[in-house]
Write a structure and sequence with these properties.
By secondary structure, this protein is mainly alpha-helical. Helices cover 62% and strands 0% of the residues. The chain is elongated, with a radius of gyration of 20 Å.
């Protein structure tokens, strides 16, 4: 028996079941939080390394920028598109 086929027990009349079990939603929330935290950290690293004038800072600046772009792409894939027109 799948999650959606289980009988509703002790649910209010206006409460509907979601397509994903609660554990999956929690994982999605933690992934979203992790992506946002990663973006904030990489943005901070970009600011700090942008103010520094050493060859090592230039390399770290490039890495932090690449990480920010990757995390932004990951962050956008965690949200379902809105198909309303």
């Amino acid at each position: 028996m799948t999650y959606l086929q289980q009988p509703a027990q002790n649910l209010p009349a206006n409460c509907t079941r979601t397509a994903q079990p609660p554990a999956k939603q929690s994982s999605m929330q933690s992934d979203r939080s992790l992506a946002k935290t990663g973006m904030a950290v990489s943005l901070g690293a970009l600011v700090v390394t942008g103010l520094m004038r050493t060859p090592q800072a230039r390399a770290l600046h490039f890495i932090a920028g690449t990480a920010l772009v990757g995390l932004c792409i990951w962050h956008t894939t965690l949200y379902k598109p809105n198909n309303k027109k």
